[in-house]
């Protein structure tokens, strides 16, 4: 059970394990500013979080995870390097699955250290794995940074690349956009809108929050995009090849080196992955059998921008991941008003760890 005595005892054990790595044990307020989360993730967060209104503090949210408040605290402290451990409840709506808890314990380990990012990635993965050492689990890994590097290297407009980057965490929308930018079929309603001499001719009175000028600007942007040449089929195939990767890490690295020959934009990201694999190996991780998925991490909260990982109970494939984590450098820049600090972290759900044993 998410809040049983056994779960709380396991949470304390894990927190103490993380503290023994040199992490400072911290706490975060249960009520967090909704404004911060809305700025980060847009209105989509409303479907996943519990929001309330305070007459003095404005719109607030029950803590959906610890990463955002931990980053805020760290950026205010200016500590470098720093390691943090925490344990506490988080709250998530589960509208489509009544079997999943909407209130549960989360225990985490976060590392802010830019001296050797590959080593920090390996450290967090290895420490989380140590916390789960008594359990039958399998690990899965990925790297959002390889996909984002590939998108940034596309031979197309900055507006198209920005749109694709914005929807990396929405796989269906990403695929639809990529297909459209590659010359795919455009919806008939959009074709008619762009072809009209006066799109407002039969629009009626103004409604909604957007002004007429904003709508006009959007139509102009769509018309400009329609005149752009399509993304080449070769580039689309390379993106698909990255997303379709699902093998052991050494085999994936070999494939990525081949892809980088035709898509040099991912070369630096592949080199970072190779450095991380070496660091994991030095930590005793069996990298030869470590799974890697090109699409892994794309349905998580949108702050991961590099290495991502998860651990799954092998005896209970029906359970959500027992532990997840990854690198989130860009989040520190957004919460640090432009000052970025390399950061990576991971969390374990002790109730699932016990349930999957």
TrEMBL record:
It comes from the Bacteria. Keywords: Glycosyltransferase, Transferase. GO terms for biological process: histidyl-tRNA aminoacylation. GO terms for molecular function: glycosyltransferase activity; histidine-tRNA ligase activity. NCBIfam families: PRK12295.1-5. InterPro entries: aa-tRNA-synth_II (IPR006195), aa-tRNA-synth_II/BPL/LPL (IPR045864), HisRS-like_core (IPR041715), HisRS/HisZ (IPR004516). L-histidine binds at residues 65-67, 92, 106, 110, 298, 303-304. This is Histidine--tRNA ligase. It comes from Yoonia maritima. Homodimer. GO terms for cellular component: cytoplasm. Pfam families: tRNA-synt_His. Residues 14-350 form the Aminoacyl-transfer RNA synthetases class-II family profile domain. PROSITE patterns: AA_TRNA_LIGASE_II (PS50862).
């Amino acid at each position: 059970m998410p809040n049983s005595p056994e779960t709380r005892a396991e949470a304390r054990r894990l927190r103490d394990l993380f503290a023994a790595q040199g992490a400072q044990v911290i706490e975060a307020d249960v009520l967090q500013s909704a404004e911060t989360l809305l700025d980060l993730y847009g209105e989509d967060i409303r479907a996943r979080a519990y929001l309330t209104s305070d007459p003095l503090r404005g719109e607030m949210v029950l803590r959906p995870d610890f990463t955002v408040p931990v980053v805020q605290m760290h950026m205010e402290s200016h500590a470098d390097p720093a390691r943090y451990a925490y344990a506490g409840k988080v709250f998530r709506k589960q509208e489509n699955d009544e079997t999943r808890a909407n209130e549960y314990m989360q225990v985490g380990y976060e590392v802010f250290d830019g001296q050797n990012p590959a080593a920090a990635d390996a450290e967090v993965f290895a420490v989380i794995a140590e916390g789960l050492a008594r359990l039958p689990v399998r690990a899965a890994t990925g790297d959002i940074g390889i996909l984002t590097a590939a998108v940034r290297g596309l031979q197309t407009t900055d507006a198209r690349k920005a749109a694709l980057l914005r929807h990396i965490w929405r796989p269906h929308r990403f695929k639809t956009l990529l297909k459209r930018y590659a010359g795919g079929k455009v919806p008939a309603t959009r074709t008619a809108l762009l072809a009209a001499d006066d799109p407002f001719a039969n629009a009626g009175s103004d409604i909604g929050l957007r002004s007429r000028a904003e709508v006009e600007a959007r139509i102009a942007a769509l018309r400009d995009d329609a005149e752009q040449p399509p993304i080449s089929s070769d580039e689309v195939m390379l993106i698909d090849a990255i997303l379709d990767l699902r093998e052991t890490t050494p085999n994936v690295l070999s494939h990525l080196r081949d892809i980088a020959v035709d898509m040099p934009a991912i070369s630096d990201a592949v080199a970072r992955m190779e450095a991380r694999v070496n660091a994991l190996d030095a930590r005793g991780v069996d990298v030869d059998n470590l799974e890697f998925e090109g699409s892994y991490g794309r349905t998580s909260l949108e702050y991961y921008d590099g290495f991502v990982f998860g651990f799954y109970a092998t005896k209970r494939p029906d359970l959500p991941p027992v532990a997840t984590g990854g690198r989130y450098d860009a989040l520190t820049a957004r919460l640090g008003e432009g000052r970025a600090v390399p950061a990576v972290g991971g969390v374990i759900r002790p109730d699932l760890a016990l349930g999957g044993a």
